[in-house]
């Protein structure tokens, strides 16, 4: 059965009930743990690299260790919520995330931090799909667009403190505070859930868990991420690289084959019969791939090349957060009136133009050039994502039945994380190769002694964090530092152009696949 998910202007004006407000509060607080963690961490990455002596590859793993577990297990998290109780699974994820955040804050080595980030990802896999699935299950359909818009607006408003606090903590030499921020948010979310939010589940669903599917998708993503991330260190011909890549590539079609034949599949393939559901997930894959890559490389560029402090780097992306906050609630309500297709075309297209503007920044004079080199692009990026986030979430949840809300949220979140894992792994590897070649070209004119040149090239795996060899003279040091900055700037330009292309591809997908109106699909 299909029924329209649309409302009149009057119904859109209805206020939330007290029960719905408590559901929103709990979902917002818990979701903010994930949003603040990611945004504040990006700003603190250069400080972490310096403090723990991390290479660029290890920094990639600080991001990907968390994202990999999210991508691998988030489908299980969404399915568990539908089967065992959304509130119960949501609270379990919050609890794990609190403990993992504490472990991250105590990390004495980069290896410890990476392992703790793995457990953060496990908690997030239970937490992230729970926030939207609880909203979808417990808020009236005629207010769902408004609810998700409110969730988007307030979580992004809370997100404002992430880059600022991350920058302040890093400037104070206390990057560990980035992870401590999560702890009070998680505790308040648990209190709200225990006191005011009831349990919900899909009573028609079997309690069996798709263990083979979870194992296969984890093997696939782990193999692909490890292979691509390790390639700069060992080369694609090394068995440590091509074997994981081969295993990961083979496990993916096997996973899809198993899902098509499993009664209790973690990814019910019949949901993809909906053009809108398929289109929104394709859009998510490409757009959020570009977003994760942009966040990673922009922060390194601002701090290590342009000379921003970490606080200034955090403030530099504030216009993006402000526009995202101002537009999200309005854009969520707009879906109830005109449908999701138009905002999901315009939003990604504007985001792509934001990437394009920033790609021309080059090596600037520092924060004094921010207003022309970065601000227009950041504003375009913020407007584009502000028009995209709430309509995208509403489209995902509105294209399937309520009984599949947890699974739908899990699938969409998993796809965004899969995109992030693969994009950071692949483009991170690509960036190291580009940077290494550019550094060699840019230092040829310096006529460095062979031992000094060899020592410098060993630093190339750190990207813009590469250090000038101690043996260099003052004149050589100045030339080498300028070459490092110029090499990263040219690498950054290529990466931003790729991000722009991915965003525009997302807009094209929206125009071809997303319907003008949302219909819940209750067929199984």
What do these coordinates show?
The chain is an all-alpha fold and 524 residues long. It has helices at residues 9-12, 18-52, 56-84, 86-105, 110-138, 144-159, 161-171, 177-180, 182-196, 211-234, 239-261, 275-305, 310-316, 318-338, 341-359, 370-373, 375-398, 405-444, 450-457, 474-513; strands at 2-4, 519-521. It has 20 helices and 2 strands. Strands 1-2 form a two-stranded antiparallel ribbon.
SSE string? EHHHHHHHHHHHHHHHHHHHHE
Determine Rg (CA atoms, Å): 23 Å
Number of domains: 2
- Say what the CATH topology of the largest domain is: Growth Hormone, Chain: A
State the secondary-structure class: mainly alpha
Quote the distance from N terminus to C terminus. 10 Å
Question: Major sheet, described briefly?
Answer: 2 strands, antiparallel
For the record, the CATH class of the largest domain is: Mainly Alpha
Percent helix range? over 70%
Strand order of the largest sheet: 1-2
The stretches of 5 or more residues where confidence is low (pLDDT under 50) are: 1-13
Question: Mean pLDDT, nearest integer?
Answer: 83
Number of helices: 20
User: Any guess at the CATH architecture of the largest domain?
Assistant: Up-down Bundle
Q: Strand portion, in percent?
A: under 5%
Descriptive terms for the model:
single chain; mainly alpha; 2 strands; 524 residues; Growth Hormone, Chain: A
Write the topology of this structure.
Elements: E1 2-4, H1 9-12, H2 18-52, H3 56-84, H4 86-105, H5 110-138, H6 144-159, H7 161-171, H8 177-180, H9 182-196, H10 211-234, H11 239-261, H12 275-305, H13 310-316, H14 318-338, H15 341-359, H16 370-373, H17 375-398, H18 405-444, H19 450-457, H20 474-513, E2 519-521
Antiparallel strand pairs: 1-2
């Amino acid at each position: 059965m299909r029924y329209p998910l649309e409302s009149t202007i009057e119904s859109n004006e209805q206020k939330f009930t007290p029960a719905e407000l408590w559901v929103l509060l709990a979902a917002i607080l818990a979701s903010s743990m994930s949003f603040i963690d990611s945004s504040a961490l990006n700003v603190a990455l250069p400080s972490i690299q310096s403090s723990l002596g991390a290479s660029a590859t290890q920094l990639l793993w600080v991001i990907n260790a968390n994202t990999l577990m999210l991508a691998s297990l988030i489908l299980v998290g969404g399915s568990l919520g539908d089967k065992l109780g959304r509130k119960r699974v949501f609270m379990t994820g919050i609890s794990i995330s609190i403990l993992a955040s504490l472990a991250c804050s105590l990390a004495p080595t980069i290896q410890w931090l990476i392992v703790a980030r793995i457990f953060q990802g496990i908690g997030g896999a239970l937490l992230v799909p729970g926030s939207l699935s609880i909203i979808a299950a417990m808020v009236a359909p005629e207010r769902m667009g408004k609810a998700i818009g409110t969730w988007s607006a307030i979580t992004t408003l809370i997100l404002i403190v992430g880059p600022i606090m991350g920058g302040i903590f890093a400037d104070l030499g206390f990057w560990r505070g980035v992870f401590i921020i999560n702890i009070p948010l998680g505790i308040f979310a648990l209190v709200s859930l225990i006191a005011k939010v009831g349990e919900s589940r899909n009573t028609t669903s079997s309690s069996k868990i798709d263990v083979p599917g979870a194992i296969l998708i984890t093997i696939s993503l782990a193999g692909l991420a490890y292979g691509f991330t390790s390639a700069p260190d060992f080369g694609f011909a090394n068995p440590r690289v091509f074997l994981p890549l081969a295993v990961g590539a083979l496990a993916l079609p096997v996973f899809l084959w198993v899902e098509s034949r499993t009664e209790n599949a973690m990814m019910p393939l019949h949901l993809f019969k909906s053009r809108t559901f398929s289109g929104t997930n394709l859009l998510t894959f490409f757009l959020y791939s570009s977003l994760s890559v942009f966040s990673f490389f922009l922060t390194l560029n601002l701090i290590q090349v342009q000379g921003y402090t970490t606080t200034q780097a955090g403030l530099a992306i504030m216009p993006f957060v402000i526009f995202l906050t101002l537009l999200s609630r309005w854009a969520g309500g707009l879906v109830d009136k005109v449908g999701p297709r138009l905002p999901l075309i315009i939003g990604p297209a504007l985001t792509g133009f934001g990437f394009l503007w920033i790609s021309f920044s080059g090596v600037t004079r520092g924060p004094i050039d921010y207003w022309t080199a970065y601000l227009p692009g950041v504003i375009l990026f913020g407007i584009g994502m502000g028009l995209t986030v709430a309509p995208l979430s509403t489209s995902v949840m509105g294209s399937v039945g309520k009984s599949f809300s947890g699974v739908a949220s899990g699938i969409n979140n998993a796809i965004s994380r899969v995109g992030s894992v693969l994009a950071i792994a692949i483009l991170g590897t690509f960036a190291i190769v580009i940077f290494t070649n550019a550094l060699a070209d840019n230092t040829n004119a310096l006529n460095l002694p062979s031992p000094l040149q060899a020592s410098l090239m060993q630093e190339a795996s750190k990207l813009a964090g590469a250090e000038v060899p101690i043996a260099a003279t003052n004149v050589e040091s100045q030339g080498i530092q300028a070459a490092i900055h110029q090499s990263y700037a040219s690498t950054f330009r290529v990466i931003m152009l790729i991000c722009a292309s991915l965003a525009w591809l997302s807009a094209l997908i929206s125009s071809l696949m997303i319907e003008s109106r949302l219909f819940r699909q209750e067929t199984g």
